[in-house]
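Researcher: Let's do a round of design. I'm pasting the structure tokens now; please hold your answer until I've finished.
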């Protein structure tokens, strides 16, 4: 992205916040996150222009230099519109017009929209009430319960007979990280959440892909991915891997955001391995809960809540 892209990108984020006529605290925090990521330029004059209505989204979109800048602009606008929950009709109309003005590829735009919608969806699950009731920056048993609940839920998806059920795993894991960051007072967007997963060697994403391969390709994939052959063994292996990956990802995210995102990549990866081992020790104690949870999961409702393109 060129330096000349910074002003129009920030202005588009500001316009996104004003799409429904008001800019609340969550949307302002999302704008601040965009500005910080760019390098905290002085945007006071730009903010005055947006407030005065002297800039238009289509004109700003035309000033962006390349496809990377256009995708970044749309991702930022999505983050702002979803900062306080799923986009309302006015925000959806703004995003549709911006997408057209940017000339974005439909598939790429759809993926970004699904991720943003999933991150802003209500938490759900047994640990949700305690997590949402807690104050920013506070950590403890309620957050531990939430992480364990999400690990059990993603593990349960591996038990379901629907061969595409585990495509909901990664959106659930990313949403979990997003909500943990919010709990610690961090205003994140989809890119920042994915960056943490990437720092961990794409463990969550790789695990989700592995689970799909095992289910769809059976023994062939099992041989390639470590000899997990046979129906029961495949399900047990995928369930344990998913449970451990989600559990570790959640606890690493908790540590990372509690310390103001100052942990190094090496420290994060070391913690991820430690929490995976802890999860493996815990797994036999919760295996029956995972199987019981699989019997109560409404997969179609879960897919809709995540905005996941898995049907």
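Researcher: That's everything. Go ahead.
Model: Designed sequence:
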């Amino acid at each position: 992205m060129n330096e000349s892209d910074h002003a129009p990108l920030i202005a588009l984020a500001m316009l996104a916040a004003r799409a429904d006529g008001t800019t609340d605290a969550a949307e302002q925090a999302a704008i601040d996150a965009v500005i910080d990521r760019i390098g905290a330029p002085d945007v006071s004059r730009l903010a005055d222009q947006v407030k005065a209505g002297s800039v238009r989204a289509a004109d700003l979109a035309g000033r962006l230099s390349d496809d990377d800048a256009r995708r970044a602009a749309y991702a930022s606008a999505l983050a702002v519109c979803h900062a306080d929950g799923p986009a309302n009709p006015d925000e959806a109309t703004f995003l549709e017009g911006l997408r057209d003005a940017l000339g974005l590829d439909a598939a790429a735009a759809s993926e970004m929209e699904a991720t943003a919608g999933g991150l802003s969806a209500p938490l759900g699950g047994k640990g949700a009430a305690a997590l949402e009731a807690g104050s920013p920056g506070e950590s403890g048993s309620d957050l531990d319960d939430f992480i364990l609940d999400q690990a059990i839920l993603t593990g349960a998806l591996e038990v379901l007979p629907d061969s595409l059920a585990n495509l909901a795993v990664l959106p659930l894991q990313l949403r979990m990280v997003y909500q943990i960051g919010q709990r610690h007072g961090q205003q994140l967007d989809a890119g920042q959440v994915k960056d943490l997963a990437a720092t961990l060697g794409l463990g969550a994403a790789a695990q989700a892909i592995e689970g799909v391969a095992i289910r769809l390709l059976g023994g062939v994939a099992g041989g390639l991915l470590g000899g997990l052959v046979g129906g029961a063994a495949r399900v047990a292996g995928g369930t344990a891997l998913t449970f451990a990956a989600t559990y570790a990802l959640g606890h690493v995210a908790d540590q990372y955001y509690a310390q103001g995102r100052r942990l190094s990549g090496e420290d994060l990866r070391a913690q991820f391995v430690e929490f995976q081992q802890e999860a493996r020790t815990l797994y036999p104690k919760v295996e029956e809960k995972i199987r019981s949870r699989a019997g109560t999961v409404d997969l179609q409702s879960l897919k809709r809540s995540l905005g996941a393109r898995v049907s």
